[in-house]
Every structure is written in C-alpha cells, then in structure tokens.
Write a structure and sequence with these properties.
binds magnesium ion, alpha/beta, 22 helices, binds adenosine-5'-diphosphate
C-alpha cells in the first residue's frame, strides 16, 4: 500500500467522520505498512489505540478494501517514538467555531471526551408533552448560570432523546462559554478509562483529570451498576465535583432508585438533584419529529414529493422509539429517490414492511396505568399504592382489566406491577369490572375510550 492510497483513505474518512474527529483520531496515525493482509499503524497513546481501533478500525479497513487494498485486519501499536503522555491537542477555537464534534478541551491533559454529534442540538430537538420537562431542565443547565440543581438526572427508555439532550447541553455551553471544561462521556467509557488507569498505575492522574472539569456529563450510568470499583470511583468523582459546585449531568435508562446493583449511597446522591424523565413519545411529538426530518430531507433530495398522510401514518404506526422512526424515514427517502417515485402510503407500506410489522402496537401495563390515571384524574402512585377509596380503587380495577385484555401478562405479573398485589386481587378487580360493564354505561364508554387511546 502506498502513501497515496492512505492519503485517499484519509480524504474519504474526513468526509464521513467530520473534520474534528479526523483531526483528533486519524491524523495522528502513522502508517507502518501492509504485510500478510495486516495494515499496521502507529498511534501515540494507549487510549488512542483502543479508541481508534474500536471506533474507526473497521471504517479504515473498509475504505482500504474499497481502494483495492487486500486487507484482513487493521492493527494499531503504540509507538515508542512519541511519549505516551503527549496526547493529540485540538485547539478550542477550532472546536467551538466549527460546532465541533469534540466536546472537551483537550489542552493540558488527555481528556477522554467522547465525540459529540453535531446534529444533536437544541434547534433540532422537537419539544412535546412527553419531553418538555427534560427539555426545560436541559435548557436551564445549558445556560451555564449558577448551579441550581446537581446533578441533573435524565432518564427514560431507549431512543427517547437522552443523549441528544446531553449533547445539546454540551454544544450550548461550549458556544456560550468556550473557556468551560465540559466533559461528556458514557459510563462505559468512564469505566474503561478507570480500568486503564488502574492497569497503567495512573489512578492519581485519572482522579485529577476528572476533578478538574467544570461540567461532567455521564451518559447511560446504569452501565456501572454492579461494577464495584468503578462505582466507587464514580462516587468519589461525583462528590468531589459537587463539593466544588461543578455541574453534573447524568442519564440512565431508569430512575436512580430503580437501577439494580447500584449502591444505595450513589442512588441517594443521584436523587439529590433534579430527576426528570422522558416519557414515551405521543402521536403529536412523533409527527413533529417526522415533519422536521422530512423538511430536511426535502432539501436534500429536491424533486421528491411526499404524499399527504404518509407522515401521519408513520407517526401512528411506529410507536417504539424515535430512532426507529427516524430510520424509517431515512430509508423511505433513500428508497424513493433510488426508484424515482413519489413517496406515497403504498410505497411506505412496501418499503417499511419489516419495521411496521415489528412495531405492531404492544401496550404495556405501565402505559395502561398512566392513561387510566390520567383519565380519572388520580395520581399514578395511587394506582400502585394501597388506598382503598372507591375513587381510586375503581380506576385501579379498570387498569387491571385493561392490562389483562390488552397485554399478554399473566395475573401474577400484573399483580407485581400493581405494587406487588396478589393474583387473586387482580382477578377480583377484573371480575368487578366485567360485572359492572353490564350495567354501567359510563364505565363502558370509559373502557372504549381508554382502549382507543391505548391502541392509537
Ligand atoms: P437515547 O439516548 O435516549 O437512547 P437518543 O438521544 O440517542 O436517545 O435519540 C435517538 C434518536 O432520536 C437520535 O437520532 C435523536 O436525535 C432522535 N430524537 C429523540 N428525541 C428527539 C426529539 N425530541 N426531537 C428530535 N429528535 C429526537
Ligand atoms: Mg443514549
């Protein structure tokens, strides 16, 4: 393989991964050569070696293959020539001016910032009922004023926008206050760095590094549950930063109290700040997101037309998560442009058959509880709690009834979701509703309405 070939690979990579990622991760690589189908490169640090091989190794290999180089494997070795302590530096001006993908200042130390996605900004975040609180809290933190709640804990299911919001906060802070040291990384990367520091006997450096940031964001913190020494270190980092009044932002797939194998003291620390959840999307939010995306695509694929009702159809049918929704739209536009046809309902049904099948509506007991509580204007907590007053017990029975009929859960499973009630209690509740249905017109109407709401 020649230097030119590598140069071409570099050009291609620059386009796909963006200038800043390129400067940070690819430029420092030194091509050693190719033998026996192994392309080998020198990298300056251990961290870079692991990061690049994990995140870009395969891309590099694919690009080489594309250019006709026969390569089975890409290898990275830490070169002795450069001291490992000298990391690649990205000047901060470049970072902010170009809305860069590198979050943190990487000057005086090897800050293990994970790349930020330039698309994840507040501008591109569609706000609706399910996420308005999380959005407002994120906005507040992004203003970078005095720390008013610490940590900000965002939680919610997969693909509901946690990472998007965190990146948006980082972008915004970096734009407003370029001097701030904002560090975003996943809990997995935190662990990974910590383990590496342990191995390289550089724990003090690690500690110092993490304690020197102004804003720390750790994504998907549920990952460190059960990983004892990482948890311990996280706890100390967390406390040290809180003591210095530095803002911390955490995300997880569930509420702090519900993360299994997470130490109690960490749970309670996490609950000290502001805990907000991103609810599952509703129809309006999904439609809003689709409209925004479609607008973007319409500019990208000019000439394509989108028939009325297609977005509504998708918002109605794909209820799993936003990532799937976006993926569907992306595919739809790509397909339509390929075959040069208008995007119609028929085309959508054809092209997205697998996604549509997979997201055939599955209602959960939790959703039923929420909708029923909303409908009868009672608190969700009472749905699960012990109160026996009719105004609460009746809606609870309605929710039990719907859970039995609209989900595949068994009675004991439903019981567990109703605050650990016995299956006979659930059975009794269901019977009661069946009995009343015969005589109570209002109840029948309620059930109908709720069913429709839940199926939509
Ligand atoms: P999570 O981290 O909660 O699993 P992500 O933040 O990765 O979810 O979001 C998944 C995808 O959905 C991303 O492409 C993100 O931009 C998009 N997304 C989620 N919520 C919204 C929203 N409210 N507006 C626009 N895009 C969204
Ligand atoms: Mg995420």
């Amino acid at each position: 393989m020649t230097k030119e070939t590598w140069g071409q690979v570099c050009n291609a990579l620059q386009k796909t991964i963006g200038r800043n990622n390129y400067v940070t991760w690819i430029e420092p690589l030194r091509l050693n050569g190719l033998s026996d189908g192994i392309a080998s490169f020198d990298v300056p640090t251990n961290f870079m070696r692991d990061w690049v091989s994990r995140n870009y190794g395969e891309q590099i290999r694919q690009q080489l293959i594309r250019l006709g180089v026969e390569v089975d494997r890409v290898e990275f070795t830490v070169s002795a020539a450069k001291p490992a302590a000298e990391p690649r530096r990205v000047p901060i001006e470049k970072v902010t001016r170009s809305r860069a993908k590198v979050a943190a200042r990487t000057d005086d130390a090897d800050l293990p910032a994970a790349p930020l996605d330039t698309r994840f900004t507040f501008d591109s975040f569609v706000v609706g009922k399910p996420n308005e609180l999380a959005h407002a809290a994120a906005r507040r933190v992004a203003e970078g004023g005095p720390v008013s709640f610490n940590p900000l804990f965002l939680y919610g299911g997969v693909g509901l926008g946690k990472t998007h919001l965190m990146h948006a906060i980082a972008h915004e802070l970096q734009a407003r206050q370029p001097q701030l040291r904002v560090l975003y990384l996943s809990a997995e990367q935190f662990m990974y760095r910590f383990v590496q520091a342990l191995r390289d006997k550089q724990v003090m450096d690690f500690k110092e590094l993490f304690r020197s940031v102004d804003v720390l964001m750790v994504d998907d913190v549920q990952f460190i549950a059960g990983k004892d020494s990482t948890q311990e270190e996280f706890f100390h980092t967390f406390n040290a930063l809180v003591d210095q009044n530095k803002q911390i932002i955490i995300s997880a797939d569930r509420a702090p109290g519900e993360i299994k194998d997470l130490e109690e003291r960490i749970k309670s620390r996490l609950q000290c700040g502001l805990v907000v959840d991103l609810h599952p999307t509703d129809y309006e939010l999904r439609l809003g997101i689709l409209q925004q995306k479609a607008e973007m695509y319409r500019q990208q694929y000019s000439g394509l037309t989108l028939a009325n009702g297609v977005l509504e159809f998708l918002a109605h049918r794909i209820t799993t998560n936003v990532r799937v929704l976006e993926g569907a739209l992306t595919r739809l536009f790509a397909f339509a442009s390929l075959v040069g046809r208008e995007i119609t309902l028929d085309l959508a049904q054809d092209c997205l058959a697998d996604i549509l099948r997979a997201s055939d509506r599955k209602v959960t007991v939790e959703e039923i509880q929420r909708k029923v509580a909303e409908h009868y204007n009672i608190r969700l907590a009472d749905m699960i709690g012990p109160k026996r007053a009719r105004t609460i017990a009746r809606p609870r029975q309605v929710a039990m009834y719907l859970s039995k009929h609209m989900t595949t859960r068994s009675l004991p499973e439903i019981g567990r979701r109703f605050g650990g009630r016995d299956h006979t209690t659930i059975m009794h509740g269901i019977r009661k509703v069946e009995e009343l249905k015969g005589t109570d017109g209002q109840l029948r109407e309620d059930l109908d309405l709720l069913r429709r709401l839940l199926e939509s």
